[in-house]
């Protein structure tokens, strides 16, 4: 487990100190990570435990629409589904959040008022992150002012891969400051910050571990795998590396950080694999929507279909649930 012999602020005082710390992290055994993720992915959950797992997965979903053709009407319909996923069954829990582009935050805030479902907004020139810091901070501030309670930012992967860790750190810290006072504590005001690593572009598991620690040192409340716009998106081995990072960060610093795999998680079977991975890697304390999310657009439908099958013994027709 990594150790911090100096305060976090000093670790991030210069590119050289950040580089020394990040490159001093233990290397990831790629073969071992792949094998462990594959092994945990074979675990099965039956009967009552499966029903509980499905409901937990529903509660962890960030129901997402991030398309250029998004309209206020589409967002309102998605918000209605987020609050009442199955209109015929009031026992189905609501999802954790609805995630939209910044300009659609006011629509989502209005549609979700009083529901308890959070509004998340991608900011910082999503999905590329190719913009100035001033623009990224301004976009974040506008989304928060419009009512977003969570901000999903993308890191500058070009800067990270070029070894300019201090630039990445400073951008995350600046966006976190734009999230508002005390942003980050789950029981205090301010928007929570989810930092998207875009792991499909980071090339190695060692880079995923370094980017995870860099984001957490800079103040991330969550670390997130992907934008969903790059392949590969979320994978079990990458999420395993990130879960190990948040576990070790808590042990080292006393601060707990959440994890959000996003992109390519489409089936109940996939979701349950991630829940098993969380339990066996970070521990059961992370099995809560405050600390683990599933970024998805189509996953919810499959969870609802599997839930109904467990209740009735048969699958719903293809037109039973709305398409997202």
Automatic annotation (TrEMBL):
Its EC number is 4.1.2.4. Gene3D superfamilies: Aldolase class I. It comes from the Bacteria. It holds the Pfam family DeoC. SUPFAM superfamilies: Aldolase. It catalyses: 2-deoxy-D-ribose 5-phosphate = D-glyceraldehyde 3-phosphate + acetaldehyde. SMART domains: DeoC. Pathway: Carbohydrate degradation; 2-deoxy-D-ribose 1-phosphate degradation; D-glyceraldehyde 3-phosphate and acetaldehyde from 2-deoxy-alpha-D-ribose 1-phosphate: step 2/2. The keyword Translocase does not apply. Keywords: Lyase, Schiff base. InterPro entries: Aldolase_TIM, DeoC, DeoC/FbaB/LacD_aldolase. PANTHER family: DEOXYRIBOSE-PHOSPHATE ALDOLASE (PTHR10889:SF3). Belongs to the DeoC/FbaB aldolase family. DeoC type 2 subfamily. This is Deoxyribose-phosphate aldolase. It comes from Microbispora corallina. The lineage of its organism: Bacteria, Bacillati, Actinomycetota, Actinomycetes, Streptosporangiales.
